[in-house]
Amino acid sequence: MIISKHYYSLQSLVSMSLTLKNRQQIFTAIFIAAIFLCVANYSFAQEDNDEEFKQGDLVSETTDTQGDPIELFNKGQDAHDKGDLETALKFYDEAIKIEPEFPEAEFQRGSIFLTLGKTSEAEKAFRRAIELRRDWTLPIAELGALL
Fold first, then answer.
1. Rounded to whole angstroms, how far apart are CA atoms 6 and 108?
2. Residue 67's pLDDT band (cuts 50, 70, 90)
3. Phi/psi of residue 94, each to 5°?
4. Which three-class secondary structure string do you get for the chain?
């Protein structure tokens, strides 16, 4: 009877061991599957957000910049840097329409007018920039060089 008792004890231990091992494997498989689903869901969510962000950029370029003089000024700067003076001038003009006391935009307009050979418009723009910001030496210097 002792042998059979050990046999059954050994058999139950092996059975419990296998069951515990199976439980660990099942738990591990479920855990890995859950991580995979989370990562996949996150990836799809990021793709959706990226698409919404791109669409939002298109909307913001057409609506937000119409009311934001700084954004218009920055777009003017970009166009100015690329040598597209007419486009830059349009952006600066729009920025000034929204914010009439914008000396930096006035100064940039003066620079464009000077480049285009429109000295009287350049002079007006430099004088307006000086009027708006008396301590700014850059438009003072440009006006002095122009005169």
1. 96
2. confident
3. -65, -40
4. CHHHHHHHHHHHHHHHHHHHHHHHHHHHHHHHHHHHHHHHHHHHHHHHHHHHHHHHHHHHHHHHHHHCHHHHHHHHHHHHHCCCHHHHHHHHHHHHHHCCCCHHHHHHHHHHHHHCCCHHHHHHHHHHHHHHCCCCHHHHHHHHHHC
8 Å CB contact between 109 and 94: no
Query: Which pair of structure tokens corresponds to residue 62?
Result: 């057409």
Q: What is the pTM of this model?
A: 0.56
Q: Encoding tokens for residue 137?
A: 């030496």
The pair of structure tokens assigned to 102 is 């914008």
